[in-house]
Fold this sequence. Notes:
Layout: H1 4-9, E1 18-20, E2 23-26, E3 29-33, H2 46-59, H3 67-70, H4 74-87, E4 91-95, H5 98-107, E5 115-119, H6 124-133, E6 136-140, H7 145-153, E7 161-166, H8 178-188, E8 191-195, H9 210-213, E9 222-226, E10 236-240, H10 242-251, H11 253-256, H12 263-278, H13 281-299, E11 311-315, H14 319-331, E12 334-335, E13 337-339, E14 350-354, H15 361-377
Parallel strand pairs: 3-12, 5-6, 5-7, 7-8, 8-9
Antiparallel strand pairs: 1-2, 2-3, 4-10, 9-10, 11-14, 13-14
Helix pairs in contact: 2-12, 4-12, 5-6, 7-8, 14-15
The structure holds 4'-deoxy-4'-aminopyridoxal-5'-phosphate.
Residues 97-99, 102, 123, 125, 166, 170, 195, 197-198, 226, 228, 234, 236 line the site of 4'-deoxy-4'-aminopyridoxal-5'-phosphate.
Amino acid sequence: MPTKLRRRYDPWYLTFDKQQGSRVWHQGKEYVMLSSNDYLGLSFHPKVIEGGQRALAQWGSSTTGARLANGSRRYHTELEEALAAFLGREACHVTAAGYLSCASSIAAFTQRGDVILVDKNVHSSIWDGIRLSGATVERFSHNSPEDLRKVLGQLDPAAPKLISLEGVYSMEGHIAPLKEFAAIATEHGCTLVVDDAHGFGVLGPGGRGTASHLGVDTSVDVIAGSLSKSLSSTGGFVAASRDMIEYLRTHSKQTIFSAALSPAQAGCARAALEVLQAEPEHLEKLWANTRRYRELLLSLGLDIWESETPAIPIVLGNKERAYFFWKHLLDQGVFSVMSIAPAVPVGKDLVRTAMSARHTDADFAIIEKALRYAVKKM
Length: 378
Ligand code: PMP
């Protein structure tokens, strides 16, 4: 049953009539989009659009089937090779959604009798991967290597173990202390799997991700991620050793029983990966915008949950305050998204916002005015 607030404000599943760059239109009114994950702002980049169009013309609309049954296409393997090279991995496997890839990065490599140690704040796709694996699950406190050590100390040292983390947490904007986690994984012989959906393209030299940012590339066994954020497409990937990727291809239900990544999706992602490497100005602009936005939020006394990345929450603390803040921003022409308990811990109800390289000075003027208005009204 929708709550009273939900009935009154109807905040989810809005249908926009038009989108252009950082702006969207709803029922004739224009909004600055402040919640999308188009971090590098490439979704309207001419080369990305051309990449998608070219793939569509060459390969048609879809493979209309799974790769195991219908075969891969050259555009799959080329994208996989490009992603693997970018991430410094031997191999990569792409699927039609980040959700599928991230779930398979856990489910394909674990089974009943194994133990999965997981940060309690990971994304829903990881929880589904864990459930499907049949392995035993042990949670540890968010971003806490100390708690992970404590939990590991109570387990059978002989049981095969996998540690599951995110590189950047999408709601909180926190970066995982991967150095410490990698040391623990090595010490205890655990496989380390990182969902870097929000670190890929954002952190590290040239946007190579969180492991690269923290100098622990070689200690992370598996990197999973999404093509729907910095690469402005849809789809997902798992990158690892050749043996692990071959194993995944024959053991992951998420890929064996699901239709392949479509030509247009792959074409856009491939072009965006090239733009990311050839035009570093997008990453520089993203971080310049992020610093500017962070300072603005902090100067207004807002609680940003110590976010260190372009994914920046505004913590309001309860559902009512989150609704009102979200609605004030909307009234002032800024579209954001609310996340309330149980999607976030109790007391952390928030409005999630995200910076993009595409936000302009004109966008900032609207965002600042809206934030000032919302703060004053609370
Ligand atoms: N992992 C994380 C951390 C995510 O935030 C998301 C998407 N929000 C996914 C996986 C799933 O990616 P996709 O939306 O491309 O399916």
